[in-house]
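Sequence only, no structure available. Ideas?
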Amino acid sequence: MAADARTCLFQWIADRFPSPAIDRDKRLRAVWKAMFYIVAPQAPFAMRTRRYRLWVHPKKRKDIARAILHRGAYEPMETAVMLARLKPGMTVLDIGANIGHYAMEAARAVGPEGRVIAFEPEPENHAALAANLALNGFTWAGHERLALGAAPGELALYRDLANRGGHSLVRANVQKPAGETRVAVVRLDDYLARELPEGRVDFIKIDVQGAEAEALAGAAKTLARDLPMLLLEFWPAGMRAMGADPMAPVRKLLALGYGMSAIERGHPGHARRLDGIEALARIDLSHPQAYVNLLFEKEKQAAGR
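Reply:
I predicted one. Tokens follow.
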């Protein structure tokens, strides 16, 4: 069978197969995987999930689209935590958007009366992000090929062949180096003053492979003004490789009046309340690749959940 015919056949299957249910049904997941490997599409095809569609490149491995292809979902606990807090009309920022999973979930949740801005500096990931937003018609979700940091400028972004979501602004955080590209860096406060001068920010997701402290430093005014909810990847080893004290930004957020929770299984709403910096320090993150996703909310709001 010709390569284009294989892709057309699998696209026909993908349009009709109940792929939004494969994350809940192991039998459906097994059938879906078998069809994928038997038909062996050679070109990108559009897959359906519960709340959005995305382009999947069959020959690309180690990327988020591939994970969604096989499991039907991506970071389901973190996604559920975010969706439980989003309402129509909110403004959401996705910092480190990759191919756009969180941006698309947020766009569906906030609706056309809301706004989503997704930041992704790596060129291939940014192109996939733009294509996925367009595929779903999320015209209220914008995308920027920018990195966010503590100061404006330009930096090297180191690509990771082992993990297409693992590109980092420091080489030490990359498992399998695959070259580098220069990327523009902006402070979030500066960007919002220019692009969203009269608006407020309700929710920010940050996953930038160790550069979280720098991204938060460049958002100091926004955080103090709006106290948006934050979903933050906390990877101590990666942050240290960037020259940051991992606990320093956490202390600043708590001082602003945030409450903090760890996203974990077995807890109501997947969020376990952490009573201060000492509780975070008790989580074993000693392994170089160990991380935990943290949720920060206004103290009264966090206490009420």
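The longest strand covers residues 177-186.
Hope that gets you unstuck.
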